[in-house]
Amino acid sequence: MPLHKLEHFDPSYRETFAGDDIKALELYTEGGQRVGSVADVLVDDDGRFRYLIIDTSLDFISKKILLPIGLSRIDYSAKRVYVDGLSKQQVENLPDHKEDAIVDNDYEEKVRSVFRSSISSMTYDRDTYNYQQEPALYGLNEQDHQTFKLYEERLIANKQRIKTGEVTVGKHIETETARITVPIQKERVLIERVVPTEAGKVVAPNELQFQEGEVARIEVYEETPEIHKEAFVREEVRVKKVVERDTVEVQDSIRREELDVDTVGNLYLQENDPTTDEAV
Questions:
Q1: How are beta strands 278-279 and 26-29 bridged, if at all?
Q2: Which positions ≥6 away from 146 have C-beta within 8 Å?
Q3: DSSP letter at 222?
Q4: 136 is a domain residue
Q5: In this predicted structure, what is the pLDDT of residue 144?
Q6: Which residue segment(s) compose the domain that 92 sits in?
Q7: Whole-structure pTM over 0.70, yes or no?
Q8: Residue 135 belongs to a domain with what CATH number?
Q9: CB atoms < 10 A from the CB of 22, how many?
Q10: Which helix H or strand E contains 13, and what residues bound it?
Q11: What is the longest distance spanned by two Cα atoms in the chain?
C-alpha cells in the first residue's frame, strides 16, 4: 500500500484536526530528553498514520528517520510527541530518510527490523505482510494518543443573492397633432373699370369697330400645401446596472466550551496554555 505525506493526502489537515498540527511538535523520550522534532507524517490510502518522519538530534547524530506511529504518544496540549526507548544505536541503524526516498516494502522492512523486538516471533513475508500483524509498531493506543477537544461556535458570514425587484424598460407610441405653417400663393382676377384717357372723344365712323363674342382668357392658379412625414432618431436610451457596496453588521449568540478540571487528593497538576506554551 503506497504511503503519502500528510499534506499531500489532506491539504486542509489542520482543519481536520481542529487546528492541531502534528508537524509542529517536538519529540521527547518519556524521561523528558529532547531527541528531535516531527518533520512530517506518512499516511496510507485510508488516511491512517503509519510513520512519523523525525528530524533527530541524539548524541551528536542528526538525520531524518521513520518512526512507526505505534511507538509514539502524542500530546497536543504539551506540543510534544513522546517515544519510549529510542536509542542511539537504533538511530544509527535506521536508514537516513531523504526527501526523494521511495518508501516501498523493502524500505519499510529495514525500518521495522530495527524496532522489532528480539523476542518477536514475526516472520516477514513481503507478499502477505500487513500493518495489523504488528500492532506494537502501528497500533494507535487511544489512551496514549487521545485528545480532549473543546469546541466553540463562531459566526461564519455568508452572502445570499436574492431578487429585490425588477425594472422593465420598453417603448410605446404616443400620437399627437402637429402643426406646421406653410406660406402659399393664390391668384385672383381683378377687373377694374377706369375712365378712358380719351373720354368724350368722338370716334370716327371708319374707326368704329364693333365685334361680338370677343373674349379675354386669364388662367388663375393657387398653391396647395403638400405634407409628408419622415422619421428621425430623437434620442438613445442606455440601460445598465451598477453595483453599490455597503457593509452590514449582524449578530447572534455563540457558545464556547471551557475546561473544568476537578482533582481529588494531594497531587501536582500542570496545565499548559497552548497560546503561550507556558505552564499555568
A1: unpaired
A2: none
A3: B
A4: yes
A5: 46
A6: 4-156+254-279
A7: no
A8: 3.90.50.10
A9: 19
A10: helix 13-16
A11: 179
